[in-house]
Design a protein that fits this description.
nucleotide-binding, binds adenosine-5'-triphosphate, DNA recombination, DNA replication, 6-stranded antiparallel β-sheet, alpha+beta, 7-stranded antiparallel β-sheet, 3 domains, 20 strands, metal ion binding, DNA ligase i, domain 1
Protein backbone atom coordinates (compact mmCIF):
# COMPACT_ATOMS: atom_id res chain seq x y z
CA UNK A 1 0.00 0.00 0.00
CA UNK A 2 1.16 3.49 -0.73
CA UNK A 3 1.78 5.61 2.31
CA UNK A 4 -0.51 8.20 0.75
CA UNK A 5 -3.43 5.80 0.89
CA UNK A 6 -2.72 5.14 4.55
CA UNK A 7 -2.56 8.91 5.16
CA UNK A 8 -5.92 9.41 3.41
CA UNK A 9 -7.48 6.73 5.61
CA UNK A 10 -5.94 8.23 8.73
CA UNK A 11 -7.37 11.64 7.78
CA UNK A 12 -10.82 10.12 7.24
CA UNK A 13 -10.67 8.32 10.56
CA UNK A 14 -9.63 11.50 12.32
CA UNK A 15 -12.85 13.13 11.14
CA UNK A 16 -15.06 10.37 12.59
CA UNK A 17 -16.48 10.54 16.06
CA UNK A 18 -18.63 7.42 16.59
CA UNK A 19 -16.61 4.43 17.85
CA UNK A 20 -18.47 2.07 15.52
CA UNK A 21 -17.56 4.20 12.48
CA UNK A 22 -13.91 4.22 13.51
CA UNK A 23 -13.94 0.44 13.95
CA UNK A 24 -15.52 0.08 10.48
CA UNK A 25 -12.85 2.26 8.90
CA UNK A 26 -10.01 0.35 10.58
CA UNK A 27 -11.69 -2.92 9.58
CA UNK A 28 -11.63 -1.78 5.93
CA UNK A 29 -7.99 -0.74 6.24
CA UNK A 30 -6.94 -4.12 7.66
CA UNK A 31 -9.06 -6.07 5.18
CA UNK A 32 -7.28 -4.47 2.26
CA UNK A 33 -3.81 -4.43 3.86
CA UNK A 34 -2.40 -7.60 2.26
CA UNK A 35 1.37 -7.68 2.76
CA UNK A 36 1.27 -4.58 4.93
CA UNK A 37 -1.11 -6.02 7.50
CA UNK A 38 1.37 -6.26 10.39
CA UNK A 39 2.66 -2.76 9.84
CA UNK A 40 -0.75 -1.16 9.35
CA UNK A 41 -2.18 -2.77 12.48
CA UNK A 42 0.56 -0.87 14.33
CA UNK A 43 0.78 2.37 12.34
CA UNK A 44 -2.93 3.03 12.68
CA UNK A 45 -2.42 3.08 16.46
CA UNK A 46 0.62 5.28 16.08
CA UNK A 47 2.96 2.43 16.95
CA UNK A 48 6.09 1.67 14.96
CA UNK A 49 7.17 -1.48 16.81
CA UNK A 50 5.27 -4.33 18.49
CA UNK A 51 4.32 -3.62 22.09
CA UNK A 52 6.64 -6.36 23.42
CA UNK A 53 9.59 -4.89 21.58
CA UNK A 54 11.48 -2.32 23.59
CA UNK A 55 13.03 -0.84 20.44
CA UNK A 56 12.33 2.86 20.13
CA UNK A 57 13.06 5.36 17.39
CA UNK A 58 14.81 7.50 19.97
CA UNK A 59 14.06 10.65 18.02
CA UNK A 60 13.91 13.82 20.03
CA UNK A 61 11.57 16.53 18.76
CA UNK A 62 14.56 18.64 17.73
CA UNK A 63 15.89 15.97 15.46
CA UNK A 64 12.50 15.76 13.80
CA UNK A 65 12.31 19.57 13.41
CA UNK A 66 15.74 19.54 11.80
CA UNK A 67 14.69 16.87 9.29
CA UNK A 68 11.48 18.73 8.46
CA UNK A 69 13.36 22.01 8.08
CA UNK A 70 15.87 20.44 5.74
CA UNK A 71 13.13 18.94 3.58
CA UNK A 72 11.30 22.28 3.56
CA UNK A 73 14.20 24.08 1.91
CA UNK A 74 17.19 26.27 2.55
CA UNK A 75 15.28 29.14 4.07
CA UNK A 76 13.71 27.07 6.81
CA UNK A 77 15.48 26.32 10.10
CA UNK A 78 14.61 23.97 12.95
CA UNK A 79 13.74 27.09 14.97
CA UNK A 80 11.21 28.12 12.32
CA UNK A 81 9.61 24.70 12.57
CA UNK A 82 9.46 25.05 16.33
CA UNK A 83 7.91 28.52 16.02
CA UNK A 84 5.23 27.18 13.72
CA UNK A 85 4.59 24.38 16.17
CA UNK A 86 4.06 26.91 18.94
CA UNK A 87 1.49 28.59 16.70
CA UNK A 88 -0.27 25.50 15.35
CA UNK A 89 0.08 23.10 18.27
CA UNK A 90 0.36 19.95 16.14
CA UNK A 91 3.55 18.67 14.54
CA UNK A 92 1.42 17.00 11.86
CA UNK A 93 -0.13 20.30 10.84
CA UNK A 94 3.31 21.92 10.82
CA UNK A 95 4.80 19.23 8.57
CA UNK A 96 1.76 19.45 6.27
CA UNK A 97 2.16 23.21 5.98
CA UNK A 98 5.49 22.98 4.16
CA UNK A 99 6.07 22.00 0.58
CA UNK A 100 8.70 19.35 0.56
CA UNK A 101 11.13 19.22 -2.31
CA UNK A 102 11.44 15.74 -3.76
CA UNK A 103 8.29 15.33 -5.77
CA UNK A 104 8.69 18.63 -7.59
CA UNK A 105 12.14 17.63 -8.73
CA UNK A 106 10.86 14.40 -10.24
CA UNK A 107 7.82 16.04 -11.77
CA UNK A 108 10.18 18.48 -13.48
CA UNK A 109 11.71 15.53 -15.32
CA UNK A 110 8.26 14.55 -16.50
CA UNK A 111 8.28 11.35 -14.45
CA UNK A 112 5.57 10.36 -12.01
CA UNK A 113 5.96 10.96 -8.35
CA UNK A 114 8.21 8.54 -6.51
CA UNK A 115 5.43 7.18 -4.33
CA UNK A 116 6.40 6.29 -0.82
CA UNK A 117 4.97 2.96 0.36
CA UNK A 118 3.96 1.83 3.83
CA UNK A 119 6.57 -0.94 3.63
CA UNK A 120 9.30 1.57 2.78
CA UNK A 121 8.38 3.76 5.71
CA UNK A 122 8.51 0.71 8.00
CA UNK A 123 11.91 -0.37 6.64
CA UNK A 124 13.38 3.11 6.92
CA UNK A 125 12.11 3.55 10.46
CA UNK A 126 13.59 0.17 11.37
CA UNK A 127 16.92 1.28 10.00
CA UNK A 128 16.62 4.53 11.89
CA UNK A 129 15.96 2.71 15.18
CA UNK A 130 18.97 0.46 14.83
CA UNK A 131 21.37 3.28 14.06
CA UNK A 132 23.88 3.50 16.87
CA UNK A 133 27.19 5.01 17.80
CA UNK A 134 28.92 8.23 16.85
CA UNK A 135 27.28 10.06 14.01
CA UNK A 136 24.02 8.22 14.59
CA UNK A 137 22.11 11.47 15.12
CA UNK A 138 23.16 12.69 11.66
CA UNK A 139 22.23 9.36 10.10
CA UNK A 140 18.82 9.54 11.73
CA UNK A 141 18.28 13.04 10.41
CA UNK A 142 19.33 11.85 6.94
CA UNK A 143 16.84 8.99 7.02
CA UNK A 144 14.00 11.18 8.24
CA UNK A 145 14.84 13.90 5.76
CA UNK A 146 14.77 11.28 3.01
CA UNK A 147 11.29 10.24 4.06
CA UNK A 148 9.85 13.73 4.49
CA UNK A 149 11.36 14.76 1.20
CA UNK A 150 9.16 12.24 -0.54
CA UNK A 151 5.90 13.19 1.16
CA UNK A 152 3.01 15.37 0.16
CA UNK A 153 0.98 17.32 2.65
CA UNK A 154 -1.21 14.58 4.17
CA UNK A 155 1.59 12.04 4.18
CA UNK A 156 3.86 14.51 5.94
CA UNK A 157 1.18 15.12 8.53
CA UNK A 158 0.92 11.46 9.54
CA UNK A 159 4.60 10.67 9.13
CA UNK A 160 5.49 13.46 11.56
CA UNK A 161 2.89 12.31 14.04
CA UNK A 162 3.98 8.69 13.72
CA UNK A 163 7.66 9.35 14.39
CA UNK A 164 6.92 11.56 17.37
CA UNK A 165 4.31 9.11 18.79
CA UNK A 166 1.54 11.66 18.42
CA UNK A 167 -0.80 9.90 16.02
CA UNK A 168 -3.99 10.80 17.90
CA UNK A 169 -6.62 9.85 15.34
CA UNK A 170 -8.84 8.18 17.92
CA UNK A 171 -7.71 4.60 17.31
CA UNK A 172 -6.96 2.78 20.54
CA UNK A 173 -6.04 -0.81 21.30
CA UNK A 174 -9.70 -1.81 21.69
CA UNK A 175 -10.49 -0.39 18.24
CA UNK A 176 -7.81 -2.49 16.57
CA UNK A 177 -8.86 -5.56 18.54
CA UNK A 178 -12.47 -5.18 17.35
CA UNK A 179 -11.37 -4.39 13.80
CA UNK A 180 -9.21 -7.54 13.60
CA UNK A 181 -12.19 -9.54 14.79
CA UNK A 182 -14.49 -7.96 12.18
CA UNK A 183 -12.00 -8.00 9.30
CA UNK A 184 -11.16 -11.69 9.59
CA UNK A 185 -14.38 -12.95 11.13
CA UNK A 186 -12.85 -14.32 14.32
CA UNK A 187 -14.31 -14.05 17.86
CA UNK A 188 -13.21 -10.95 19.69
CA UNK A 189 -12.37 -13.09 22.77
CA UNK A 190 -9.86 -15.09 20.72
CA UNK A 191 -8.28 -11.84 19.49
CA UNK A 192 -8.18 -10.49 23.01
CA UNK A 193 -6.49 -13.61 24.38
CA UNK A 194 -4.02 -13.72 21.51
CA UNK A 195 -3.14 -10.07 22.13
CA UNK A 196 -2.58 -10.76 25.80
CA UNK A 197 -0.18 -13.61 25.19
CA UNK A 198 1.69 -12.15 22.22
CA UNK A 199 1.50 -8.43 22.94
CA UNK A 200 1.78 -7.92 19.19
CA UNK A 201 -1.09 -6.44 17.18
CA UNK A 202 0.59 -7.05 13.85
CA UNK A 203 1.19 -10.69 14.50
CA UNK A 204 -2.32 -11.26 15.84
CA UNK A 205 -3.81 -9.58 12.77
CA UNK A 206 -1.75 -11.81 10.50
CA UNK A 207 -2.60 -15.01 12.38
CA UNK A 208 -6.31 -14.06 12.36
CA UNK A 209 -6.14 -13.48 8.63
CA UNK A 210 -4.23 -16.62 7.68
CA UNK A 211 -5.11 -19.18 10.36
CA UNK A 212 -8.37 -17.92 11.83
CA UNK A 213 -9.70 -18.68 15.29
CA UNK A 214 -7.72 -21.91 15.72
CA UNK A 215 -4.48 -20.14 14.93
CA UNK A 216 -5.24 -17.44 17.46
CA UNK A 217 -6.12 -19.97 20.13
CA UNK A 218 -2.82 -21.74 19.53
CA UNK A 219 -0.74 -18.66 20.23
CA UNK A 220 1.33 -19.05 23.36
CA UNK A 221 3.47 -16.87 25.56
CA UNK A 222 7.03 -16.64 24.37
CA UNK A 223 9.87 -16.53 26.81
CA UNK A 224 11.77 -13.34 26.00
CA UNK A 225 8.73 -11.32 24.94
CA UNK A 226 7.27 -9.38 27.84
CA UNK A 227 3.55 -9.28 28.47
CA UNK A 228 1.71 -6.45 30.12
CA UNK A 229 1.66 -6.59 33.89
CA UNK A 230 -1.55 -7.25 35.78
CA UNK A 231 -2.41 -4.23 37.91
CA UNK A 232 -4.28 -3.50 41.10
CA UNK A 233 -7.00 -1.21 42.38
CA UNK A 234 -7.03 0.42 45.77
CA UNK A 235 -9.19 -1.74 47.97
CA UNK A 236 -10.38 -2.52 51.46
CA UNK A 237 -10.06 -5.76 53.40
CA UNK A 238 -13.74 -5.84 54.27
CA UNK A 239 -14.83 -5.55 50.64
CA UNK A 240 -12.33 -8.15 49.49
CA UNK A 241 -13.58 -10.66 52.08
CA UNK A 242 -17.18 -9.86 51.23
CA UNK A 243 -16.47 -10.60 47.57
CA UNK A 244 -14.29 -13.69 47.92
CA UNK A 245 -14.71 -14.94 51.53
CA UNK A 246 -10.98 -15.57 51.65
CA UNK A 247 -8.21 -13.46 50.18
CA UNK A 248 -4.67 -14.23 49.12
CA UNK A 249 -2.64 -11.79 51.18
CA UNK A 250 0.93 -10.71 50.45
CA UNK A 251 3.19 -7.90 51.43
CA UNK A 252 3.13 -5.01 49.02
CA UNK A 253 6.85 -4.66 48.50
CA UNK A 254 8.20 -1.19 48.13
CA UNK A 255 10.20 -1.46 44.95
CA UNK A 256 9.72 -1.53 41.20
CA UNK A 257 7.88 -4.08 39.09
CA UNK A 258 9.79 -6.49 36.89
CA UNK A 259 9.05 -9.41 34.62
CA UNK A 260 11.75 -11.98 34.42
CA UNK A 261 12.15 -14.26 31.41
CA UNK A 262 14.36 -17.34 31.68
CA UNK A 263 14.79 -19.58 28.65
CA UNK A 264 16.77 -22.23 30.50
CA UNK A 265 20.09 -20.52 29.93
CA UNK A 266 19.82 -16.79 30.21
CA UNK A 267 17.63 -14.36 32.04
CA UNK A 268 16.19 -11.15 30.65
CA UNK A 269 14.44 -8.64 32.85
CA UNK A 270 11.81 -6.14 31.74
CA UNK A 271 10.42 -3.17 33.58
CA UNK A 272 6.73 -2.44 33.87
CA UNK A 273 6.79 -0.47 30.63
CA UNK A 274 8.62 -3.36 28.99
CA UNK A 275 11.98 -1.74 28.79
CA UNK A 276 14.84 -4.21 28.94
CA UNK A 277 16.55 -3.65 32.30
CA UNK A 278 18.68 -6.79 32.28
CA UNK A 279 22.06 -5.09 32.11
CA UNK A 280 21.51 -2.71 35.02
CA UNK A 281 20.46 -5.56 37.34
CA UNK A 282 23.25 -8.17 37.24
CA UNK A 283 22.64 -9.45 40.77
CA UNK A 284 18.99 -10.25 39.95
CA UNK A 285 20.11 -12.02 36.78
CA UNK A 286 22.67 -14.07 38.72
CA UNK A 287 20.14 -14.88 41.40
CA UNK A 288 17.52 -16.01 38.91
CA UNK A 289 19.97 -18.05 36.85
CA UNK A 290 21.12 -19.86 39.95
CA UNK A 291 17.72 -20.43 41.47
CA UNK A 292 15.32 -21.03 38.61
CA UNK A 293 14.87 -24.72 37.92
CA UNK A 294 13.32 -24.47 34.46
CA UNK A 295 12.34 -21.94 31.78
CA UNK A 296 9.86 -19.48 33.24
CA UNK A 297 8.21 -16.08 33.12
CA UNK A 298 8.12 -14.64 36.60
CA UNK A 299 6.38 -11.51 37.85
CA UNK A 300 7.76 -9.67 40.82
CA UNK A 301 9.20 -6.62 42.45
CA UNK A 302 12.82 -5.58 42.71
CA UNK A 303 13.60 -4.00 46.05
CA UNK A 304 16.70 -2.14 47.20
CA UNK A 305 17.81 -3.45 50.56
CA UNK A 306 19.97 -1.79 53.14
CA UNK A 307 20.57 -3.68 56.36
CA UNK A 308 17.33 -5.62 56.02
CA UNK A 309 15.21 -2.52 55.35
CA UNK A 310 14.01 -1.50 51.91
CA UNK A 311 15.28 1.80 50.58
CA UNK A 312 12.80 4.14 48.88
CA UNK A 313 11.73 2.76 45.51
CA UNK A 314 13.36 5.71 43.75
CA UNK A 315 16.67 4.02 44.57
CA UNK A 316 15.55 0.98 42.61
CA UNK A 317 14.48 3.13 39.68
CA UNK A 318 17.89 4.80 39.74
CA UNK A 319 19.46 1.35 39.36
CA UNK A 320 17.11 0.61 36.44
CA UNK A 321 18.35 3.71 34.67
CA UNK A 322 22.01 3.11 35.30
CA UNK A 323 23.85 2.32 32.07
CA UNK A 324 27.48 2.87 33.03
CA UNK A 325 29.45 1.78 36.03
CA UNK A 326 26.86 -0.79 36.98
CA UNK A 327 29.35 -2.59 39.21
CA UNK A 328 29.78 0.55 41.30
CA UNK A 329 26.04 1.18 41.46
CA UNK A 330 25.61 -2.38 42.62
CA UNK A 331 28.02 -1.80 45.49
CA UNK A 332 26.22 1.35 46.52
CA UNK A 333 22.67 0.00 46.36
CA UNK A 334 22.05 -3.73 46.29
CA UNK A 335 18.79 -4.93 44.84
CA UNK A 336 16.90 -8.17 45.38
CA UNK A 337 14.00 -9.96 43.75
CA UNK A 338 10.68 -10.60 45.44
CA UNK A 339 8.76 -12.85 43.06
CA UNK A 340 4.98 -13.10 43.45
CA UNK A 341 3.56 -14.64 40.29
CA UNK A 342 4.39 -17.08 37.54
CA UNK A 343 3.00 -16.74 34.03
CA UNK A 344 4.85 -19.61 32.45
CA UNK A 345 6.69 -22.58 33.90
CA UNK A 346 8.63 -25.26 32.13
CA UNK A 347 6.82 -25.07 28.79
CA UNK A 348 3.37 -24.44 30.25
CA UNK A 349 1.43 -21.17 30.12
CA UNK A 350 -0.28 -20.40 33.39
CA UNK A 351 -2.30 -17.26 32.60
CA UNK A 352 -5.59 -19.09 33.04
CA UNK A 353 -4.53 -21.05 36.13
CA UNK A 354 -5.86 -19.75 39.47
CA UNK A 355 -3.58 -17.48 41.48
CA UNK A 356 -2.95 -20.09 44.16
CA UNK A 357 -1.82 -22.63 41.60
CA UNK A 358 0.43 -20.12 39.88
CA UNK A 359 2.00 -19.25 43.21
CA UNK A 360 2.55 -22.94 44.00
CA UNK A 361 4.28 -23.38 40.66
CA UNK A 362 6.41 -20.36 41.39
CA UNK A 363 7.58 -21.88 44.65
CA UNK A 364 8.49 -25.09 42.89
CA UNK A 365 10.38 -23.43 40.09
CA UNK A 366 12.19 -20.71 42.05
CA UNK A 367 14.00 -21.55 45.24
CA UNK A 368 13.89 -18.50 47.49
CA UNK A 369 12.86 -14.91 46.96
CA UNK A 370 9.18 -15.84 46.61
CA UNK A 371 6.49 -13.81 48.40
CA UNK A 372 4.64 -15.47 51.27
CA UNK A 373 1.02 -15.84 50.13
CA UNK A 374 -1.48 -16.44 52.93
CA UNK A 375 -5.01 -17.39 51.97
CA UNK A 376 -7.28 -16.36 54.82
CA UNK A 377 -10.67 -14.95 55.71
CA UNK A 378 -9.55 -13.77 59.13
CA UNK A 379 -9.37 -10.00 59.43
CA UNK A 380 -7.03 -10.16 62.39
CA UNK A 381 -4.61 -12.38 60.53
CA UNK A 382 -4.69 -9.95 57.62
CA UNK A 383 -4.07 -7.05 59.99
CA UNK A 384 -1.08 -8.88 61.43
CA UNK A 385 0.36 -9.47 57.96
CA UNK A 386 -0.08 -5.79 57.22
CA UNK A 387 1.53 -4.78 60.49
CA UNK A 388 4.50 -7.02 59.71
CA UNK A 389 4.78 -5.61 56.20
CA UNK A 390 4.80 -2.08 57.55
CA UNK A 391 7.24 -3.00 60.33
CA UNK A 392 9.55 -4.40 57.68
CA UNK A 393 9.41 -1.04 55.91
CA UNK A 394 7.15 -2.08 53.04
CA UNK A 395 4.10 -0.28 51.69
CA UNK A 396 1.15 -2.31 52.90
CA UNK A 397 -0.52 -5.42 51.56
CA UNK A 398 -1.94 -6.84 48.38
CA UNK A 399 -5.26 -8.66 48.54
CA UNK A 400 -5.73 -11.09 45.68
CA UNK A 401 -8.64 -13.20 44.62
CA UNK A 402 -7.26 -16.74 45.14
CA UNK A 403 -9.20 -18.10 42.18
CA UNK A 404 -8.38 -15.36 39.72
CA UNK A 405 -6.56 -15.80 36.44
CA UNK A 406 -3.70 -13.52 35.37
CA UNK A 407 -5.14 -10.71 33.25
CA UNK A 408 -2.30 -8.81 31.55
CA UNK A 409 -2.65 -5.07 31.50
CA UNK A 410 -5.86 -5.04 33.50
CA UNK A 411 -6.44 -2.94 36.58
CA UNK A 412 -9.29 -5.05 37.89
CA UNK A 413 -10.79 -5.98 41.22
CA UNK A 414 -8.94 -9.29 41.49
CA UNK A 415 -5.87 -7.54 42.84
CA UNK A 416 -6.41 -4.87 45.44
CA UNK A 417 -3.75 -2.87 47.17
CA UNK A 418 -4.01 -1.55 50.67
CA UNK A 419 -1.46 1.03 51.56
CA UNK A 420 -1.32 2.44 55.08
CA UNK A 421 -4.02 4.89 55.84
CA UNK A 422 -3.32 8.40 54.81
CA UNK A 423 -5.23 9.70 57.81
CA UNK A 424 -4.53 8.50 61.30
CA UNK A 425 -6.36 9.42 64.47
CA UNK A 426 -5.06 10.05 67.97
CA UNK A 427 -7.45 8.47 70.45
CA UNK A 428 -7.57 8.07 74.19
CA UNK A 429 -7.40 4.62 75.73
CA UNK A 430 -10.42 4.24 78.05
CA UNK A 431 -10.48 0.48 78.52
CA UNK A 432 -8.67 -2.78 77.85
CA UNK A 433 -8.91 -6.53 78.28
CA UNK A 434 -6.38 -8.88 79.84
CA UNK A 435 -5.05 -11.33 77.31
CA UNK A 436 -5.30 -15.09 77.32
CA UNK A 437 -2.79 -17.94 77.37
CA UNK A 438 0.76 -16.72 77.06
CA UNK A 439 -0.55 -13.18 76.90
CA UNK A 440 -2.53 -13.49 80.19
CA UNK A 441 -0.29 -11.05 82.05
CA UNK A 442 -0.61 -8.41 79.33
CA UNK A 443 -3.33 -5.95 78.58
CA UNK A 444 -4.54 -6.19 74.98
CA UNK A 445 -7.62 -5.19 72.96
CA UNK A 446 -7.65 -1.52 73.88
CA UNK A 447 -10.85 0.50 73.89
CA UNK A 448 -10.46 3.83 72.12
CA UNK A 449 -12.33 7.07 72.67
CA UNK A 450 -12.58 10.51 71.17
CA UNK A 451 -12.88 13.71 73.19
CA UNK A 452 -16.19 15.53 73.20
CA UNK A 453 -16.65 19.29 73.42
CA UNK A 454 -17.58 19.16 77.07
CA UNK A 455 -14.55 17.13 78.03
CA UNK A 456 -16.10 13.65 78.05
CA UNK A 457 -14.83 10.67 76.12
CA UNK A 458 -16.98 8.60 73.78
CA UNK A 459 -15.89 5.19 72.51
CA UNK A 460 -15.49 4.36 68.82
CA UNK A 461 -13.55 1.14 68.54
CA UNK A 462 -11.10 -1.40 69.87
CA UNK A 463 -7.61 -2.01 68.64
CA UNK A 464 -5.87 -5.33 69.06
CA UNK A 465 -3.78 -5.62 65.94
CA UNK A 466 -0.47 -4.26 64.87
CA UNK A 467 1.05 -4.80 68.34
CA UNK A 468 4.05 -7.00 69.01
CA UNK A 469 4.51 -8.97 72.26
CA UNK A 470 7.24 -6.60 73.27
CA UNK A 471 4.97 -3.62 72.74
CA UNK A 472 2.17 -5.33 74.70
CA UNK A 473 4.49 -5.60 77.72
CA UNK A 474 5.41 -1.93 77.44
CA UNK A 475 1.80 -0.85 77.01
CA UNK A 476 0.71 -2.89 80.04
CA UNK A 477 3.35 -1.19 82.15
CA UNK A 478 2.24 2.17 80.85
CA UNK A 479 -1.49 1.64 81.35
CA UNK A 480 -1.62 -0.36 84.60
CA UNK A 481 -1.34 2.76 86.79
CA UNK A 482 -4.40 4.16 84.98
CA UNK A 483 -6.70 1.18 85.64
CA UNK A 484 -9.85 2.58 87.23
CA UNK A 485 -12.05 -0.48 87.64
CA UNK A 486 -11.78 -4.14 86.82
CA UNK A 487 -14.51 -6.65 85.99
CA UNK A 488 -13.16 -10.10 85.16
CA UNK A 489 -10.85 -9.66 82.20
CA UNK A 490 -12.24 -6.22 81.35
CA UNK A 491 -10.71 -3.10 82.81
CA UNK A 492 -11.76 0.51 82.68
CA UNK A 493 -8.88 2.90 82.15
CA UNK A 494 -8.85 6.51 83.20
CA UNK A 495 -8.03 8.84 80.29
CA UNK A 496 -4.32 9.42 80.27
CA UNK A 497 -2.71 7.62 77.36
CA UNK A 498 -3.15 8.48 73.69
CA UNK A 499 -2.70 5.99 70.85
CA UNK A 500 -2.10 6.85 67.22
CA UNK A 501 -4.34 4.56 65.22
CA UNK A 502 -4.73 3.82 61.52
CA UNK A 503 -8.06 2.68 60.11
CA UNK A 504 -9.75 1.73 56.90
CA UNK A 505 -13.03 3.57 57.27
CA UNK A 506 -15.13 5.37 59.86
CA UNK A 507 -18.71 4.13 59.90
CA UNK A 508 -21.81 5.28 61.67
CA UNK A 509 -22.58 2.53 64.14
CA UNK A 510 -24.70 1.95 67.26
CA UNK A 511 -22.02 -0.36 68.71
CA UNK A 512 -20.06 2.42 70.41
CA UNK A 513 -21.19 5.40 72.44
CA UNK A 514 -19.89 7.96 69.95
CA UNK A 515 -22.24 6.65 67.24
CA UNK A 516 -19.20 5.85 65.07
CA UNK A 517 -16.99 2.81 64.64
CA UNK A 518 -13.52 2.51 63.23
CA UNK A 519 -13.30 -0.29 60.72
CA UNK A 520 -10.08 -2.22 60.82
CA UNK A 521 -8.21 -0.13 63.39
CA UNK A 522 -4.47 -0.67 63.62
CA UNK A 523 -2.10 0.41 66.39
CA UNK A 524 0.63 2.70 65.13
CA UNK A 525 2.20 3.94 68.35
CA UNK A 526 1.80 5.83 71.62
CA UNK A 527 1.61 9.60 71.34
CA UNK A 528 3.76 10.40 74.37
CA UNK A 529 3.62 13.99 73.26
CA UNK A 530 -0.15 14.20 73.61
CA UNK A 531 -2.51 14.40 76.54
CA UNK A 532 -6.18 13.33 76.35
CA UNK A 533 -7.08 16.99 75.94
CA UNK A 534 -5.06 17.26 72.76
CA UNK A 535 -6.29 13.94 71.34
CA UNK A 536 -8.71 14.00 68.42
CA UNK A 537 -12.17 15.37 69.06
CA UNK A 538 -15.40 13.69 68.11
CA UNK A 539 -15.94 16.63 65.79
CA UNK A 540 -12.87 15.66 63.78
CA UNK A 541 -14.07 12.07 63.64
CA UNK A 542 -17.39 13.29 62.23
CA UNK A 543 -15.54 15.36 59.65
CA UNK A 544 -13.33 12.44 58.64
CA UNK A 545 -16.39 10.20 58.31
CA UNK A 546 -18.03 12.77 56.06
CA UNK A 547 -14.95 13.17 53.89
CA UNK A 548 -14.79 9.47 52.91
N1 LIG B 1 2.98 -8.87 46.32
C1 LIG B 1 2.74 -8.05 45.31
N2 LIG B 1 1.85 -8.40 44.33
C2 LIG B 1 1.58 -7.57 43.30
N3 LIG B 1 2.13 -6.34 43.16
C3 LIG B 1 3.01 -5.95 44.10
C4 LIG B 1 3.37 -6.78 45.20
N4 LIG B 1 4.27 -6.11 45.95
C5 LIG B 1 4.47 -4.94 45.36
N5 LIG B 1 3.72 -4.81 44.25
C6 LIG B 1 3.68 -3.60 43.39
O1 LIG B 1 2.43 -3.00 43.61
C7 LIG B 1 1.85 -2.61 42.38
C8 LIG B 1 0.35 -2.79 42.47
O2 LIG B 1 -0.31 -1.57 42.33
P1 LIG B 1 -0.66 -1.00 40.89
O3 LIG B 1 -0.94 -2.11 39.98
O4 LIG B 1 -1.70 0.02 41.09
O5 LIG B 1 0.73 -0.36 40.46
P2 LIG B 1 1.21 1.13 40.65
O6 LIG B 1 0.37 2.01 39.79
O7 LIG B 1 2.68 1.10 40.44
O8 LIG B 1 0.84 1.46 42.14
P3 LIG B 1 1.72 1.76 43.40
O9 LIG B 1 2.24 3.15 43.21
O10 LIG B 1 0.69 1.63 44.49
O11 LIG B 1 2.80 0.72 43.49
C9 LIG B 1 2.44 -3.53 41.36
O12 LIG B 1 2.52 -2.92 40.10
C10 LIG B 1 3.80 -3.89 41.92
O13 LIG B 1 4.79 -3.02 41.40
Amino acid sequence: MEFGEFADTAAEIEELSADSDIIDAVTDLLSSANDDLEVLARFVQGRVFPAWDSTTLDIGPNLCYTAIARAAGQNVSADDVEDRLAEMGDIGAVAASYEFGGQQGLAAFGGGRDELTVAEVATELDALATTEGSGSQDTKIDILFGLFNRTESLEARYLARLVLSEMRIGVGEGTVRDAISAAFDVPVESVQRALQVSNDYGRVARVAESEGEDGLDDLQLEVGRPVQAMLAQAGAVTDALEDWEVAGVEWKFDGARVQLHYDGETVRIFSRNMEDVTDPLPEVVEYAEENLAAPAIVDGEVVAMDDGEPLPFQEVLRRFRRKHDVARAREEVAVELRAFDCLHADGEDLLTAPLVERHDRLQVILSGGVSALTVTGDEDEIADIEANALDAGHEGIMLKNPDSTYSPGRRGKNWRKRKPDVETVDLVVTGAEWGEGRRASFLGTFLLSARTEDGDFETLGKVATGITDEELAELTELLEPHIATQDGQTVEIAPGIVFEVGYEEIQESPTYSSGFALRFPRFLGVRDDKTPESADSLERIERLAEMQ
